[in-house]
């Protein structure tokens, strides 16, 4: 999971660099309306991707903290063990499948 943390941090950093709004000249250029629209859509897309990556990063960091406390692999809702097969697919899982489905309803 620590490798995944570094990978996610790099992805976030790269996305921030590619954000059209990261260019200080963006605010002062007189781009055409269609260029402004494309830049806005690009910015919105990058922001959404960053938020998703930050959420995953946060879940992984929480899982790493749980490991240190000896509480990794326990469902936060019901307290039962999360099946190993689920943890192999989603190491940062906070809930077992039943609880996850109940929370999403």
From TrEMBL:
Region forming the signal peptide: none
Positions annotated as zinc finger (dksA C4-type): 75-99
Which UniProt keywords are listed?
Coiled coil, Metal-binding, Zinc, Zinc-finger
Keyword Repeat annotated:
no
Q: Which superkingdom does the taxonomy of this entry point to?
A: Bacteria
Q: Outline the extent of the Zinc finger DksA/TraR C4-type domain.
A: 70-102
SUPFAM superfamilies listed in its UniProt record: Glucocorticoid receptor-like (DNA-binding domain)
Q: Does the keyword Secreted apply?
A: no
Q: Which Gene3D superfamilies match?
A: DksA, coiled-coil domain
Coiled coil location: 43-70
Q: Which GO terms describe its molecular function?
A: zinc ion binding
Q: Which PANTHER family match?
A: GENERAL STRESS PROTEIN 16O, RNA POLYMERASE-BINDING TRANSCRIPTION FACTOR DKSA-RELATED
Q: What is this protein called?
A: Zinc finger DksA/TraR C4-type domain-containing protein
UniProt lineage: Bacteria, Candidatus Roizmaniibacteriota
């Amino acid at each position: 999971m620590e490798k995944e943390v570094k990978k996610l941090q790099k992805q976030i950093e790269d996305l921030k660099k590619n954000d059209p709004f990261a260019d200080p000249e963006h605010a002062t250029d007189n781009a055409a309306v269609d260029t402004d629209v494309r830049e806005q859509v690009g910015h919105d897309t990058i922001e959404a991707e960053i938020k998703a990556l930050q959420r995953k990063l946060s879940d992984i960091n929480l899982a790493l903290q749980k490991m240190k406390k000896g509480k990794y692999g326990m469902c936060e809702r019901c307290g039962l063990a999360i099946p190993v097969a689920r943890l192999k697919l989603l190491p940062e899982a906070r809930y077992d499948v039943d609880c996850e489905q109940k929370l999403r309803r």
